[in-house]
Design goal:
The chain has about 270 residues and is an alpha/beta fold. It contains ten helices and twelve strands. The strands form two sheets. A seven-stranded parallel β-sheet has the order 3-2-1-4-5-6-12, with helices on both faces. Strand 4, helix 4 and strand 5 form a beta-alpha-beta unit. Helix 4 runs parallel beside helix 5 and helix 6 runs parallel beside helix 7. The protein starts with a strand and ends in a 5-residue tail after the last helix.
């Protein structure tokens, strides 16, 4: 099979440059397009030079229709609204759309579900292989331990992160809720301040910390009578997200249209 032709959305950003590097290093993939927002000072520049891998001949453009028309897939770590635009074009082109964007609302997810009827969408709040294995373990532990064990998700990220809780924290909370057979929206506690009263059994709490240059720390705490089980992941380099995203794109090639997750990519659905 020929190399998979991939487009990077947001190619001039920090994550975008890492995606260009990861595609360059991956066997079976080649960069064929690079997108940036209209007005970006990076438009017209070579994506490879920006990413530090040398000249590729792929120039940054703000025209997704043109870029995706010659592609087999697009990797998208942008914003919710930009992701919806990309999903519509990907559905028309019938190409793989890997989504690492966070901060998606229920309405955004519903729109992505519609696009997934015509294209392969692989979406995750975190593309790290280790985090997705952690989510599978959280689901299993939550299913095994009863409500005597309180669940708290604690996350810390760099000072510039704009959404909270992180997409990864929500993914872990969703895994815990799935393990217990409940809806996260019904049991989620996002903030505590003042006289809150005792903790409700079965709640899934979230604590958010921001500061410094932390790439991403996540703990899933199961606090029971006389003991605590803490499942942890520490991201030390953003390249782990880029490598996972490229792996997801290669996995999605040739699949039937659908809305997939990294659990599907890694075969973790039965964990």
């Amino acid at each position: 099979m020929s190399e998979m032709r991939l487009v990077v959305a947001g190619a001039a950003g920090r994550m975008g440059r890492m995606l260009v590097q990861a595609i360059h290093a991956a066997e079976g993939a080649v960069l064929c397009g690079a997108l940036e927002r209209p007005g970006s000072i990076a438009l017209g520049q070579d994506a490879g030079l920006l990413a530090g891998i040398g000249k590729t001949g792929v120039l940054l453009t703000d025209d997704p229709l043109q870029a995706l028309s010659a592609a087999d897939g697009v990797i998208d770590f942008t914003t919710p609204d930009a992701t919806l635009e990309m999903a519509a074009i990907s559905a028309q082109a019938r190409i793989v759309h890997v989504i690492g964007s966070t901060g998606l609302s229920d309405a955004h997810v519903q729109a992505l579900d519609a696009a997934a009827r015509h294209a392969v969408l692989v979406r995750s709040g975190n593309m790290s292989l280790g985090v997705n294995l952690l989510a599978g373990l959280v689901r299993k532990v939550a299913a095994t331990l009863g409500e005597d064990y309180d669940i708290e998700i604690v996350e810390m990220h760099h000072r510039m992160k704009v959404d909270a809780p992180s997409g990864t924290a929500l993914m872990l909370g969703g895994a815990a809720a799935q393990g217990r057979g409940v809806a996260l929206a019904d049991r989620s506690v996002r903030a505590r301040d003042g006289h809150t009263g005792a903790r409700n059994p079965g709640d899934i709490g979230f604590a958010t910390i921001r500061g410094g240059t932390v790439v991403g720390d996540h703990d899933a705490i199961f606090a029971g009578p006389g003991e605590r089980l803490i499942l942890s992941h520490r991201a030390e380099d953003r390249s782990v997200f880029a490598r996972g995203a490229v792996r997801a794109a290669l996995w999605g090639r040739g699949r039937k249209p659908g809305h997939y997750s990294m659990a599907d990519v890694l075969g973790l659905a039965d964990l």
